[in-house]
Structures are given as C-alpha cells and as structure tokens.
Write a structure and sequence with these properties.
The protein is an alpha/beta fold. The strands form 6 sheets. Strands 6-7-5-4-8-9-11-10 form an 8-stranded mixed β-sheet, with helices on both faces. It has an 8-stranded mixed β-sheet with strand order 17-18-16-26-27-28-25-29, with helices on both faces. A 6-stranded mixed β-sheet has the order 20-13-12-24-31-30. Residues 622-629 have low confidence and may be disordered. It binds S-adenosylmethionine. Residues 14, 32-33, 71-77, 100-103, 156-157, 174-176, 181, 183-184 line the site of S-adenosylmethionine.
Length: 629
C-alpha cells in the first residue's frame, strides 16, 4: 500500500530502490538515468543534442543562458550542465536552470545518488548545501557566486509551468518514459514548453515516441529523430525557428534610492550581476532609518491556512536562511528562535497551525516550556514553536557591508527633491547636488517612499513608530542564547547589551526616544518572561533608538513596477518597500525577485506570489492621478 501523502506544505518525497548503487523510482518503476553510464547519457542526450558546449562558448559577457527541465530527480542533469557551463562559457556569462519536481529526493537520497559521480562532487556539495527542505513551491538557489541560478519548483509540472515566469533557450525533457508516466508528456505540457521558449530554443529527450514528436512539431518545433544513447535505438531533438536575435534591453546602470536593508540588498544583488548601481540616501551612511538597529531577529509569522500569503512568507524565510549564512556570515547569528505561545489566544493559534499543517522539523517544531527554557537559556513560562535555522542579525552592519562592492557607488547626505523621466532614463535631483541619471530607478525609501514617487497617487502605506530598548546584560537574571519572540523579542547579548522591542505606535510621528516607550517595552518583556529582569526597574537608564517601519494596508510588502493612478506602469521605475517589521525576512528574496525583473531573467516568484507584492494593489481605488511627462 502506498504511504499517505503528507499535508501541506510538505510534499511527498521520492521512494527509491537502489540497484547496483543506482536509484530507481518505486512509484514509476523506472530508472533515474541509464544504468550503462548516466553521466555520459546526460552529456549525449541533453548537452550534446542541445549543442550546449558550442552555444555556451559563443555567449557574450553579461549574457544569461536559460535551461528548462521537466523532472529534477537527482540533479545529475543540472550538475552536468553547470560543469559544461564552467568549462565552456565566458566568465561574465551566467546560467539559469529552471526545473520542476513532483516527488523530490530526500536530502540523504540525493547525497547517495550523487556520490556515484566523484567528478561532480564539488558541485554536488554546493547543491546539497542549499537543497531546500521538502516543502511545496518555488525555491531559488544562487550558486557559484551568482554565476549559476537554480529555480526549483517542487510541485506538479503543469502547475509549475503555468505559474512560473521565464523563457528557456534549451530544454531537458526528462520525466521518466511516457509509458510509465504519461502525465508529464501530455499535450498541455508540450504547449507550456513552447510558451516558455525563446526564439531558437532547442529541446532534447531520450524518448522517441511518435505522438510526442508530432506534438512538438505541431507546437512549432522542427523535430528530428536521431540515434539514442547506448542500447537505445532512437531519441528526439527539436528546435524552434530563430527570429532576429532579440535584445533583452537590460539596464546598464540603476539608481536605488534608499540605503536600508531593501536598497542595500538589491544594490548588492544587481552589482553581482554586473550592473552599475548608484545608491542615494539622505542619511550620512547606510541603514540610517528602520534598518539601522544593532540587532534584529529573522522570523516569520506563518498563517494557520497554507494560502498564498503563508507560502510567500515561507519562501522568504527559507531564502533568507539560505542567503545570510552563505553571503553575510559575519553579521549572522544562527542561534535558533523561539516563538513563544505566551497567551491563551496564541497557544490556540499555534495548536491549530500544527494540526492543519505539516512542516519539516528542520523548519520548525513544537517545544514545551521546559524544552524552550533549555534551548533559549532563559526561564520560559510557556512553550511554542522552535525555528532551529533562524536567529538574529546585525542589520546596520549588514547594510554597510553589502554596499562595499566595486559596482556600487554611494551618494549619502543626498536630500532628493525631484525624480523625473528624461530621454527614456530617470533623473534624480537633490538639494545642492549634481543630478543622478540612470536607466532605471528603484525607490526603496521605507516610509518616505511616497514622498519620492513621481506620481500623484494614493498608495496605501503607513509609517509605524518603533522604539527599541537596549539593556545592560547585568540587568538580566539569565542570558538568552537564542532569540525569544512573543509580545516582544529578546535577543542574545551583543557588546554587553541585549536589545528588546519594539513598540508599535500607530499615528505617532515622534522621532524622539522616550521613557514611556522604554517602560512599555520592559513591562511587555517582563509579562512575556517573568523573572528575566532583576528587581530594579532598568527603564530610567535604558538607551534605545526610534525608527519608522513602512507597512501597507494589507501588511504585505511592495516589490514591483511603479504604476500611476490608472494602473499604468511607468517604464523603468520600481518600488521596493512596505517590509514592516520583517525586513530581514522579506528583503533577500524580494531583492532577488526585483533584480530578476530588472535584468529580464527567470523570476524568483511565481505569478501567484508576485501578485501579492505588486505595487498596484496598494493604490487606493478612488484616486484619480495622471501620468507625469
Ligand atoms: N533529470 C533527473 C536527473 O538528472 O536525475 C532525472 C529525472 S527522472 C528520469 C524523472 C523525474 O520526473 C522524477 O524525479 C519524477 O519524480 C519527476 N516527475 C514525474 N512526474 C512529474 C510531474 N507530473 N511533475 C513534475 N515532476 C514529475
């Protein structure tokens, strides 16, 4: 009997049988690759018949080559393509591999399957390091210092191809034999492959079934039957006619307004893709606004319903947990994080959440009060959810470090007065400063974004005051070794202090630090963790910082093209804001997504999730605005 499929967001893993050290699918009764020599078969069928070595070597610096695949399986094809790309492509070109997988291999199985190919081991290790937990949806892996990107959609191929935004130059059609797995070879899949193909795209597959060859021919591919690998007599390959080579119009220089987390992560992402970036900010340095706190926690509040909103938060959390340890290890502290139940209401919510969803333990697990106390090092009156891969960061230092890149120029103390389109470019004027001109502009100005927008329009954003409180370690009865969150958060010590906060003051523009806010933080902290503070009230001598978070009417972030009141896009102008108090969680994935949009690459967010961050949704419906110049 087949095992029961897990509840969402978990996805059913592949069940493997091992024959002579090689994996066979128990479900499909078929091999993952040829038993004669899987790697040679991949090179012959997929690399050779898509002419990849030649096409890789004729790429120009700055080009991106996109491969689409049906059936990621063990990742052998991906690694072989990556290896060939390393061997043949110029160093400034990049490879983007988009693959789908309905029954992903467990991490241990993947390791065992790839151990068969010692020559691929450095690449296999890099893949394993970032291989996602087995939850449904789109996962973006950035490998080889950004030279290679993998968009891995865990889910059914049709659903994936309908939801993803990309166009491929070559296809690896590798979903078990049509006789074992007819679903993956339906005409709908063929049509979707065609839709996601660039002019001149090629395809290759080990099968030679006539119906499939005719299906692709009807979709517009010139099809050809050629000799198969090893004992297989035939296989098929195909090619779409080439139209004139299209220029993808990638902007060469981009202006980012705002040097907080959003702006800094985006600037760095673009710079690593070879784009020249100018970052302008009114502050005297990076992270002058809400991103300037010394400590911040990486956490997500995942909804009881596994809907698009929860899926987006989960994707962002997992991406952030991949991004920080690899890219910014010196400011990332992977201590783990407790989301304490605390109140009866939150306890009930967590119970429902656990009943209705199935998350892998590597993402989160329920813990008792006793376990919570052991994990965090502070006496916890209640249990909660433990996020073992989370932790805390130093946001101010992070912004600073990210902007240190030869392709990034910074303009601090730049008080922007006007942003206008000029000759298909964008021009930003600032008090007493030379104008800044770029091919595209991204406004990442936190709560000041609205003032910078070159459209008259009512975007539903609001600023929420937040004051954090720093307490000397000596005022605590126990030192936290992990982040504790609930009605407040408490971070592990840094520089002899711990930070707790933050207040959430609606309609309060007061920029000054005040005693009443410190008292509020301290009262909430002692309510959450009674006994964590020594007797004496530390509020009068506490220090802290005030900043303003930018949130939207639906508390979802904004990342996408700027539109005017009629919903028309202003070419080359983009928004990146509304991250609320979860900037550390949102910013890495949304920076990746926006950089994809700006560079014309496969998008890190499928359409269903991209819609949730689209600026258009924030326009108040009643407002009429006009397009400028
Ligand atoms: N390319 C893989 C490699 O390099 O190891 C081998 C792929 S294996 C022959 C076929 C894969 O297609 C399996 O991993 C299987 O789970 C997956 N698959 C089958 N039906 C699918 C579907 N409807 N949607 C997505 N993936 C599917």
């Amino acid at each position: 009997m087949e095992p029961l499929a897990p509840s969402l967001p978990s996805i059913e893993p592949a069940t493997l049988e091992w024959r002579d050290g090689q994996p066979v699918s128990a479900r499909f009764g078929d091999v993952y690759f040829s038993r004669e020599n899987g790697l040679e078969e991949t090179r012959y069928v997929f690399l050779g018949h898509n002419r990849l070595p030649d096409r890789f070597s004729s790429l120009d610096e700055g080009d991106t080559f996109v491969i689409g695949e049906t059936g990621f399986g063990t990742g052998l094809n991906f690694l072989a393509a990556w290896q060939a790309f390393r061997d043949h492509a110029p160093s400034g070109a990049s490879l983007h591999f988009v693959s789908v997988e309905r029954y992903p291999l467990r991490a241990d199985d993947l390791r065992q399957a790839l151990a068969f190919w010692p020559e691929l081991s450095p690449l296999a290790e890099a893949l394993q390091q970032q291989y996602p937990p087995l939850v449904t949806g789109c996962h973006r892996l950035v490998l080889d210092g950004g030279r290679v990107r993998l968009t891995l959609y865990l889910g059914d191929a049709v659903e994936a191809l309908e939801d993803l935004s990309f166009r491929a130059d070559a296809w690896f059609l590798d979903g078990f034999a049509p006789a074992c797995n007819p679903d993956l070879w339906e005409q709908r899949v063929i049509e979707l492959v065609r839709t996601h193909s660039r002019p001149g795209a090629t395809l290759a597959t080990f099968t030679s079934v006539g119906r499939i060859r005719r299906g692709f021919a009807e979709a517009g591919f010139r099809m050809e039957k050629v000799a198969g690998f090893g004992h297989k007599r035939d296989m098929i390959r195909g090619e779409l006619p080439v139209s004139a080579r299209q220029s993808c119009g990638v902007p060469r220089c981009i202006l980012v307004v705002g040097a907080g987390l959003a702006g800094s992560l985006l600037a760095r992402n673009l710079a690593e893709r070879g784009v020249q970036v100018t970052v302008a900010d009114q502050g005297e340095g990076p992270g002058a606004g809400a991103s300037g706190n010394a400590q911040g926690a990486l956490y997500a509040k995942l909804g009881v319903q596994f809907n698009a909103q929860t899926q987006l938060s989960l994707a962002a959390l997992l991406h952030a947990q991949r991004y920080y340890p690899l890219n910014t290890p010196d400011v990332w502290h992977p201590t783990g994080l407790l989301m304490m139940a605390g109140s009866g209401q939150e306890r009930q919510r967590q119970q429902k959440f656990l009943q209705q969803n199935q998350y892998p333990e590597s993402i989160l697990r329920p813990v008792s009060a006793e376990q919570a106390t052991t994990l965090t090092g502070v006496p916890c009156p209640d249990g909660g959810l433990w996020f073992g891969q989370s932790g805390w960061l130093e946001p101010a230092r992070l912004c600073h470090n990210l902007l240190e890149h030869p392709n990034i120029k910074t303009e601090f103390g730049f008080r922007a007065t006007r942003l206008l389109p000029c000759n298909s470019r964008w021009c930003l004027s600032g008090e007493g400063r030379q104008d800044l001109v770029a091919d595209a502009v991204v406004i990442a100005g936190g709560h000041q974004t609205r003032a910078l927008m070159p459209v008259v329009g009512d975007y539903r954003m609001k600023a929420i005051r937040g004051q954090v409180t720093a307490l000397p370690v000596a005022s605590l009865t126990a030192q936290p070794r992990a982040v504790v969150t609930g009605t407040r958060y408490l971070n592990p010590p840094m520089g002899g202090q711990v930070i707790t906060g933050a207040t959430f003051d609606l309609h309060d523009p007061d920029p000054q630090e005040r005693l009443s806010s410190h008292q509020e933080n301290i009262d909430a902290l002692t309510g959450m963790l009674p006994g964590v503070l020594r007797e004496e009230n530390p509020a009068p001598s506490a220090t802290g910082r005030v900043s303003f978070r930018c949130t939207t009417h639906d508390y979802q972030p904004i990342a996408g093209p700027l539109v005017n009141g009629e919903g028309q896009v202003l070419d080359g102008a983009w928004l990146f804001t509304g991250l609320g108090s979860k900037g550390l969680m949102w910013a890495p994935l949304l920076a990746e997504y926006l950089a994809d949009c700006l560079c014309g690459e496969p998008l890190a967010l499928p359409k269903s999730l991209a819609a949730r961050v689209d600026p258009k949704r924030c326009l108040a419906e009643t407002v009429t605005t006009s397009r400028i110049a």
